[in-house]
Each structure stands twice: as structure tokens, then as C-alpha cells.
Write a structure and sequence with these properties.
heterodimer; A: 499 residues; alpha/beta; Rossmann fold; Pyruvate-ferredoxin Oxidoreductase, domain 3; 2 domains; eight-stranded mixed beta sheet; six-stranded mixed beta sheet; elongated; B: 382 residues; five-stranded mixed beta sheet; 13 helices; 38% helix; globular
């Protein structure tokens, strides 16, 4: 007698046999869809090591766990963004999202439309069984009108999504729909998707006899039978007519198949043209070249180079507040002062800025604290020096001007009033001087030069270095002249005061 | 290929320094969604990542951002997202998935005032308990809190190293002040930056179980495309990674997720003590509030008060053993934080009645007035 020989089923290689039996009900369409995917993968020339499957939550969400591939069973609705991360971090992967209609179109609906718009190269198989099967058959975003579910006992009143129309409208370059009664066509569609570079979407209409069928007089095989009898198979179906009603025909076929650069292809094209990268893969897995060491930094790695001789020693923290109107470049002035003190004078500096919801316009201020020792509290609370470049800013920040402090203003633009006692006011027609230089926009740099001449806490050399590093290329000459103009004005004023 | 470490001395915001730290730590994937006051991190990453062969993607929301960095981590990239306020609330669901699936990644929360939309442009420190247990279920997590741009750079690297070592999402709890303020930041040479990487599988596919822990309770981590046919699920799972919906599996898995942080907390917890030995009163603080406390210490010294500072570098896991020890030696702990008592309650728990505990807190929008903190200290000292 010949011993019967038990051979592996050819599909077994792609299934986690130890996890079978699966959780799906008799008559459920999910097995057919999974089986079609296994066939499509076997027929493809993909290295299966590089195929990953991502699912969300629900009956369909369990599919990932039955496939003997790298598989990810994520949170409800988030399979698509998770898959996006997988694909972009390793473009060698073929990433398949296998999930249900509730998962992908309701809680994950936002991700679905954006992934289609971006054209991320992921293959989305959406099994639509018209309801939430796992949680007991509640209505969802694809439940046909008047259908009964556990949450639409009187008949569903909402219009369902036409998912193929939706994803096509969002720009998906591949969109198809079949039912689980069409394994052959499903396989063909899946095969095409696996080859496509871009977001591809396959909706598979599948029966849920236990929940949806039972409540809609479509028990067990009846639902599947309906799909077979009522499906309209067309070579070029009209997507606008693909709505599904409770007793309408189900339009099937391939709705969209076009070429559009995928997300990564578009990045590669654009970025490669602008960034010097070699063999850009977009996954950071290219070995990085050893970074050449800057000559200056090499002298004392991790520590600032030698302390300059002209470094001002600031015993106690000095608080400086600069204010102006949006566009006057007051923030840049603060930044240059901070850079000069912190980088070139080897002092400490803390720079903070007021943030308001207005993107432009209105009075704004930036603040710097400089000291030779540590600066703890970051905010300027009692300014020692205020620089104000516009009347609107003066009106807003006048409350901060303290007795005994120094106030630097634009002579023509600010009329100080109601000043507290013993404020030292120092004025420069910065805007006028800037206009004489040919560019009103450098009034801030004129003021900065003036500030440098008068205020002993930042060295001239440091300020000049910081200025050079902080202005756009091609504007150096103008800015340096502006700085000198303000500086000379300040020095001259000091000399006159001394006389 | 561009350089990932731009060695030099800079004047940077905490947010810019955080991005520089991420690149230095090896981050090559960033997914995010704009939100004040964290957006500068995303902006900087969008410029820098393509220069070093990485990917920046702006997602449709924070739910997607968090999901994407988990996916990227399982594809082998070090990944990060950055957000604030409402954004971090939206990320909580997938932070839980990251915890359950032991996915290394870094989540930056530049804290602003809340609840809800709160104070988008102003500081808060009220997401400390959310960082610990904001996602449902029981777990332990790691959170760090820098107090300056230099620390934002360094702690971001530490955050990646901790995430890779302990296989858990690590939360960098910055705050709006630290995120937006500028200070000198020194970026060292690449060779001087210590970078940790996850431990890969030591066995070939077949026998290997992706969630079988080693002695330190951490499993070896294969990634997609290596041929291990891994299964990663947010369901309670066994050592193969397969769903196991039963209490025994829950006990085995969740107790390990908790223990891997608790039992290793001596290696993870980190704090800084200033003048703590012999102090009458100890200030306890973190993030920007640490800076205020340093100012308060100087003011207290002038008044002859022996005030110590215990500053949390790593907030979670909390240095409970050390706080217990110190409680027996001092008159009081004064916790200084921008909320109405989150760490203060932890301090109270571990002080366990052995010393007085006080909170100096407020609802956010600004930092503490050092004078107010000093007054609280003086009241206890007198």
C-alpha cells in the first residue's frame, strides 16, 4: 500500500500556518481576497523578503498577521501613514496596506485622501463589506442607504462614500474595484498594483454574511450570489456611476491607470537638482562621508577658540530690549548683538523674541541679556538699555523704560514723552542716514553701529564679525557702510558730549 | 553627501539646536505637522534631511506623523517628530503603539500653555504627567527636559540613544522658552559624539523570535526587509509577536514593558545636584524653571539661606531613590514648575512625610518670578 504523502500547499509559503485557523466567519469574503493577494505575490517577480504588509484594525486588519511577510498590525485607521513611513525610510520595500472600509475610509479617511494626493508608492487593498464586522455590525462610511445595521435599525440615512471616485479625485494613478467573487480579476489588479510606482487603490466588495447579510436579507451565500449576478464588469467603467445602493448593480473594473511621478520620484527629481547629494535614495542608508573638520574648530574641539583681548567684562547681566515696527529689522539687530556677544566676545547671551499671531505689522520687540557669567532667568524684565525705532513701538513699550536706563531712538521717528527721571536719551536720525546711503532698509544697521559706539558691552570687532555673518550675500558693502555711518555718528556725539 | 554634524560655535534657538542634535544622533526620517512653538524643528529638518540622504515629510496631522515615524523606525531609520499642545494629545494613541511594539523613536514636545489651544506662543510645563501616561494602558516611558539650547542639542542625542537602547519612544519635553530662546551652542566634532544604535538580531531567521527579551529585558530588533518575516502588532502578543488575547500573555508582556524601564532606571534616570549636600531646603525643578531656580539660589545665598537645587535631566523615570534619601536630610523640598503640581506630587510621594513639600507653580504663559520662589523659600527657612 502506498503511504499518502502530504505535500505543502503551494500557497503555504506565504502564510503563517501556525496562525491558521483564521478568525474569519464562514462565508466571509476575506479569505478569497487574501488568497488572491498570495497568488499575485507568487506570480510577481518581487523578492518577497522586501514585501511588507500593513493593516489597521478590524476583521480585515487581521490579514497582515496571516501573511508570512514582514507584517504590521497597527492602530485603527493609521495603516496608511505607518506604511508611508516604512516605504519612505526604505524605498526597496514594496508596501501593501490591507485593511477594511471603516478603517481606511472613516477613521483613516484623512490619511487615505492625502496619501492618494501625495502619490506615495503604497498599494492599498480596501476590503469593503459595508459595515463594522468585528465590533458587531455597526453602520459605517460605506453602508448603503436604507441598509440595516446594529446602529441603523431604521435603515441607513447617510450617503455612502464612492471610494473609487474619491481616491481617483485625489489623484491616485491606479484605481480599480472588484468583488470577492472575482478572484481572477482581483489577482490581475493586484499584479498590476505591485508593478505600479505610485499610490494604487483596489476596492474589493466582500460579503459579511454574519452581520451585514443577516440584517439585510442576504444571508450566507446570497450576498456573494448577488455580487456575481449584479456586478457589471466593464473595460472602461464610468467612475461617476460607481455609487453602490442596497440593490443597485456594482460597477467593477479598472477606473484609473495613468502615469504620475510618485512621491519619492518627485522628491528625487526636485531635491537632487538643488542639494548636492550623491546617489540620493531618500532613506539615509547611504554611508556618510567623514565630515571634514573646520580648521578653526580643530584647534579646540567642543570649546570656543581663544578669548579675544578686547572682550568686555560684564559683571552683572545687562538687559537690552529692542523695539520697532514689523519690517524694520529689529529682530536681526538683536540677533547680531547676541551673536557678537556669545560667539565672538565669548560672553554669554540670551536672546528672546515676542511672538504674536500677526505674521507682519504691529510693534514687536526682541530682547537680549549679555553677561560674562551665567545668565539664568531668560526674560528681560528691567531693561538697562532700550532701543526704539518707531513711535508705535515707543507707545507700546514705554512702560518698560526705567529710571536711570538708557534709551536709544530714531531721532526723526520717535518723540519720547512722559519719560521717568534720569533716562539718558541718545538719538540718531537712523532712517534719514540710511536713506542718504540709498536704502532705507538699513536703518536698523545704522542704529546697530550707533549702539556699538555708545554701549560698552559688546566689542566693535565682535559686532563687525557678527554683522558679516548675518546679512545676505551681496549686501555686505551697503551694510558695512550703514554700520560705519551709525558708529561714526555715535563716536562723534560722544566726543562732543565729552567737550 | 552633506555633513550631518556641522561642528562649530553658533547662536541658536533650542528648536534649531534640537534639529542639529537629531541629525548628529543619526536621525534620517522626520514626519510632522506644523504647530507653534515647535514648527522651527520641522522647518530645519526639511532643509537638512535631504542634504544627508534622509527624508522629511509633512503629514496631514499629528496622528499620521506619529504613525509614520513608527513605520520608518521599523524600516531601519532613526525617526523623530516634533509637536506641542493639541498635537501631542493627538499623538498619544500611536505613542502607545510605539510602547507596545517597542519601537525606538523620539517625540519632541515643545510645551506651551494648555489645556486645549491655550497659549500657542507662550510657555507651559503642564504636559509632564501626560508624557508619562497620556496613552491608555499601563506602561513606563522615558522623558528628558533640556533647560538651554545647548542642552536641547545634547539631550536630543541622549533621547535617540535612550530610545535605541531601551526600545521605547522617548519624549523630549522642551518648553516654549527653551525652544525659542537663543544662546551659544557648541557642536562638537562628529567623532566626539556618542551614538547608540539598536541591537539587531544575533540569530538567523527561523528560530529567531522577534519579541524574546535578552537579559536586560530588551529583545533584539530586526527590521523590515531583513528576511525575518516579523509580525508587529499593537495587540497583546507572545514572543513571536503573534496576538495572544489572554491574561497570562498580558502579564508577561506588560510587566516586561514596565520592568524594562523600572529595573533599569539606575541606568536611565539622570539629574543634577547643586549645593544639595548640607542644604536646608532643596528646590526641585526641570526645563526652563531650572534657570529660575539657579537665580533663586544666588539670591538665597545673599540672604544666608542654604538652598540646594535638584534638577531633573531625565524626568521619567523619576529618581525616586535619591529623592527618598534626601527627604530624610532636609527641612523641605520646594518644587518649581509651570503647572499646578505634577512633579510636586511625585516629590511628595517619595518624601513620604519625612520633610515638608511645597509647590511654587502657576498656569503658564511666563516663567516664574524668582522673587516669588525666594519668598516661598524664605517662609520655610524662617
Amino acid at each position: 500500500m502506498i503511504e499518502p504523502q502530504i505535500l505543502d500547499h503551494p500557497k503555504d509559503m506565504l502564510l503563517r500556518k501556525e496562525r491558521i485557523p483564521h478568525i474569519w466567519c464562514p462565508g466571509c469574503g476575506l479569505g478569497s481576497v487574501l488568497s488572491a493577494l498570495v497568488d499575485a505575490l507568487r506570480n510577481s517577480d518581487l523578492d518577497l523578503k522586501n514585501v511588507a504588509v500593513v493593516s489597521g484594525i478590524g476583521c480585515t486588519g487581521r490579514a497582515a498577521g496571516y501573511l508570512n511577510l514582514d507584517s504590521f498590525h497597527t492602530t485603527h485607521g493609521r495603516a496608511i501613514p505607518y506604511a508611508t513611513g516604512l516605504k519612505l525610510a526604505n524605498p526597496d520595500l514594496t508596501v501593501i496596506v490591507f485593511s477594511g472600509d471603516g478603517d481606511l475610509a472613516a477613521i483613516g479617511g484623512n490619511h487615505l485622501i492625502h496619501a492618494a494626493r501625495r502619490n506615495v508608492d503604497i498599494k492599498v487593498i480596501c476590503v469593503n463589506n459595508f459595515n463594522y464586522g468585528m465590533t458587531g455590525g455597526q453602520g459605517g462610511p460605506t453602508t448603503p442607504r436604507l441598509a440595516r445595521t446594529t446602529t441603523t435599525s431604521y435603515g441607513n440615512t447617510e450617503k455612502p462614500f464612492n471610494l473609487v471616485h474619491l481616491t481617483a479625485a485625489c489623484g491616485a494613478p491606479y484605481v480599480a474595484r472588484w468583488t470577492s467573487a472575482h478572484p481572477h480579476y482581483m489577482k490581475i489588479a493586484m499584479g498590476e498594483m505591485l508593478k505600479k510606482d505610485g499610490f494604487s487603490f483596489l476596492e474589493v466588495i466582500a460579503p459579511c454574511p454574519t452581520n451585514f447579510g443577516r440584517r439585510n436579507k442576504l444571508r450566507e451565500i446570497k450576498l456573494l450570489q448577488r455580487f456575481l449576478e449584479q456586478a457589471i464588469l466593464e473595460a472602461q467603467p464610468d467612475i461617476a456611476k460607481a455609487d453602490i445602493e442596497l440593490d443597485s448593480p456594482i460597477l467593477c473594473g479598472k477606473f484609473v491607470d495613468l502615469e504620475r511621478p510618485s512621491y519619492l520620484a518627485a522628491i528625487k527629481e526636485t531635491v537632487s537638482a538643488k542639494v548636492k547629494v550623491y546617489d540620493f535614495r531618500g532613506d539615509g542608508r547611504v554611508p556618510l562621508e567623514e565630515a571634514p573638520v573646520k580648521a578653526a574648530a580643530a584647534k579646540a574641539p567642543g570649546k570656543p577658540a581663544e578669548v579675544p583681548a578686547e572682550r568686555p567684562i560684564i559683571q552683572r547681566p545687562v538687559q537690552i530690549k529692542l523695539a520697532g515696527l514689523g519690517g524694520q529689522g529689529i529682530g536681526l539687530c538683536g540677533l547680531i548683538i547676541g551673536r557678537a556677544a556669545a560667539i565672538f566676545d565669548h560672553n554669554q547671551a540670551v536672546y528672546t523674541q515676542e511672538y504674536s499671531p500677526e505674521a507682519r505689522g504691529g510693534a514687536s520687540a526682541s530682547s537680549i541679556i549679555v553677561a560674562s557669567g551665567q545668565i539664568h532667568a531668560p526674560y528681560v524684565t528691567e531693561p538697562d538699555i532700550m532701543v526704539i525705532m518707531a513711535q508705535g513701538a515707543y507707545n507700546k513699550y514705554q512702560k518698560d523704560v526705567r529710571p536711570g536706563s538708557r534709551l536709544i531712538i530714531d531721532k526723526d521717528l520717535v518723540r519720547p514723552k512722559d519719560l521717568p527721571g534720569s533716562v539718558q536719551v541718545q538719538a540718531i536720525p537712523a532712517t534719514r542716514l540710511a536713506e542718504e546711503l540709498g536704502q532705507k532698509v538699513v536703518a536698523n544697521i545704522v542704529t546697530l553701529g550707533f549702539f556699538t559706539a555708545l554701549v560698552p558691552y559688546i566689542s566693535l570687532a565682535a559686532m563687525q564679525k557678527a554683522l558679516k555673518g548675518s546679512i545676505p550675500k551681496g549686501t555686505e558693502e551697503l551694510n558695512l557702510r550703514a554700520f560705519e555711518t551709525g558708529y561714526d555718528y555715535g563716536k562723534k556725539m560722544q566726543e562732543e558730549e565729552a567737550v | 553627501m552633506g555633513k550631518d554634524v556641522l561642528t562649530g560655535t553658533y547662536f541658536l534657538t533650542g528648536n534649531e539646536a534640537c534639529a542639529a542634535g537629531a541629525l548628529a544622533a543619526g536621525c534620517r526620517f522626520f514626519a510632522g505637522y506644523p504647530i507653534t512653538p515647535s514648527s522651527e524643528i520641522a522647518e530645519r529638518m526639511s532643509i537638512r534631511l535631504p542634504q544627508v540622504g534622509g527624508v522629511y515629510i509633512q503629514m496631514e496631522d499629528e496622528l499620521a506623523s506619529m504613525a509614520a515615524i513608527l513605520g520608518a523606525s521599523w524600516a531601519g531609520a532613526k525617526s523623530m517628530t516634533a509637536t506641542s499642545g493639541p498635537g501631542i494629545s493627538l499623538m498619544m494613541e500611536n505613542i502607545g503603539l510605539g510602547v507596545m511594539t517597542e519601537t525606538p523613536c523620539v517625540v519632541v514636545n515643545v510645551m506651551r500653555g494648555g489645556p486645549s489651544t491655550g497659549l500657542p506662543t507662550l510657555v507651559g510645563q503642564a504636559d509632564v504627567m501626560q508624557a508619562r501616561w497620556g496613552s491608555h494602558g499601563d506602561y513606563e516611558i522615558i522623558a528628558l527636559s533640556p533647560s538651554s539650547p545647548q542642552e536641547a542639542f545634547e539631550y536630543t542625542i541622549r533621547a535617540f540613544n535612550l530610545a535605541e537602547t531601551w526600545r521605547v519612544p522617548v519624549i523630549l519635553l522642551m518648553d516654549e522658552v527653551v525652544g525659542h530662546m537663543r544662546e551659544r551652542v557648541v557642536i562638537p566634532e562628529k567623532k566626539d559624539i556618542k551614538v547608540a544604535n539598536r541591537r539587531g538580531p544575533s540569530e538567523p531567521p527561523g528560530k529567531f523570535k522577534a519579541f524574546r527579551p535578552k537579559k536586560d529585558l530588551i529583545p533584539e530588533m530586526p527590521v523590515a526587509g531583513q528576511g525575518y518575516a516579523i509580525h508587529v502588532t499593537g495587540l497583546t502578543h507572545d514572543e513571536r509577536g503573534y496576538p495572544a488575547i489572554e491574561w497570562e500573555a498580558q502579564e508577561k508582556l506588560v510587566s516586561r514593558l514596565v520592568k524594562k524601564i523600572r529595573l533599569n532606571s539606575a541606568k536611565i534616570a539622570s539629574w543634577e545636584e547643586t549645593g544639595v549636600e548640607g542644604a536646608e531646603i532643596i528646590l526641585i525643578s526641570y526645563g526652563v524653571s531650572t534657570r529660575i531656580c539657579r537665580a533663586v539660589r544666588e539670591m538665597a545665598r545673599e540672604k544666608g539661606i542654604n538652598l540646594g537645587l535638584f534638577r531633573l535631566e531625565v524626568i521619567w523615570p523619576f529618581p525616586e531613590k535619591r529623592v527618598r534619601e534626601l527627604a530624610g536630610r532636609v527641612k523641605a523640598f520646594v518644587t518649581v514648575e509651570i503647572n499646578y503640581g505634577q512633579i510636586a506630587l511625585e516629590v511628595e510621594r517619595y518624601a513620604a512625610g519625612k520633610c515638608m513639600t511645597r509647590l511654587v507653580g502657576h498656569g503658564g504663559g511666563t516663567v516664574h518670578d524668582p522673587q516669588k520662589v525666594l519668598e516661598a523659600v524664605e517662609e520655610i527657612a524662617s
